[in-house]
Specification:
The chain is mostly helical. It contains 10 helices and no strands. Helix 2 packs parallel to helix 7, helix 3 packs antiparallel against helix 4 and helix 4 runs antiparallel to helix 5.
Length: 266
């Protein structure tokens, strides 16, 4: 248990990113994520919203409880009570620690926008936080507390995203696009300020840190101004593209239903 939680550092060898151990572990998490989201999503699809929302409520409580336990353990393990400053929910993936509870417990347009935000970014965060978390899997053994908790919370974000889609909870209303943009932009501003204050790399706005953001970092030559701007713009472009593709699919499905109806009536 001492070795699993990393007290005194990990003595086991690091298997490395994209090793068979890494891929086996994250593929298992992805299989559980997809299986549970499909099962519960289809089970609740025809039910009232309050029944659908119970799954999100449980997810919100679990994901925040696990993250809080992680922060407390990290502070205890490092011996620094201020270590929580380096574990704030200010990464793109960890925004779900706030967005999922907002989706589960708020009402009105805030709830709709939060549901859409989780739907848009949850699965992306799950993939990047498991398969793409090369910096973690090159630093710690696969079955270590750091990687296991990260894998679980990222998978729960992906689960929430798929569940919202399959159960029919996503609104994706055009009038809420601005709120979705605002949520992300606000977090980016807060993350950038926090980076300057505590000398950290929230939202990977200061450097790529071995993540796929290295592509953007290299494109702008590591420029301290252009790099964070490019990262934020990339987020916003992703949101716009997601909405665009979603509306195209909705339009295609509506046209398909009309053709089927015309054939049946004809």
């Amino acid at each position: 248990m001492r070795e699993f939680f990393g007290f005194g550092g990990y003595e086991r060898p690091v298997e490395g990113a994209m090793s068979w151990q890494h891929l086996t572990f994250v593929c298992t998490l992805m299989a559980l994520m997809v299986g549970l989201s499909v099962l519960l999503g289809l089970w609740n699809r025809q039910k009232e919203f309050k029944y659908k929302n119970r799954v999100l409520i449980v997810t919100a409580i679990l994901i925040d409880s696990i993250e809080l336990f992680k922060i407390i353990l990290f502070c205890f393990r490092s011996g620094d009570p201020w270590d929580w400053l380096h574990n704030l929910p200010l990464f793109l993936c960890s925004i779900q620690l706030i967005a999922i509870p907002l989706a589960a417990f708020s009402k009105g347009r805030i709830r709709d926008a939060a549901l859409d935000f989780v739907f848009i970014f949850g699965l992306l965060g799950a993939i990047f936080g498991t398969f793409g978390a090369t910096q973690n899997y090159n630093a710690y053994p696969v079955l270590a507390f750091d990687n296991v908790v990260s894998g679980i919370t990222h998978s729960m974000s992906g689960f929430a995203s798929l569940y919202i889609a399959i159960s029919g909870m996503a609104s994706m209303k055009k009038k809420n696009v601005g709120i979705t943009f605002g949520i992300l932009s606000g977090f980016c501003v807060i993350a950038y300020i926090a980076n300057l204050l505590v000398d950290y790399n929230y939202m990977f706005l200061m450097s790529h840190d071995g993540t796929p953001y290295s592509i953007v970092y290299n494109l702008v030559g590591g420029n301290a101004i252009l790099y964070p701007i490019a990262v934020v713009l990339l987020f916003l472009v992703y949101i716009a593209c997601f909405y665009y593709v979603f509306f195209l699919v909705q339009k295609w499905r509506a046209a398909k239903r009309q053709r089927i109806t015309a054939i049946v009536q004809g």
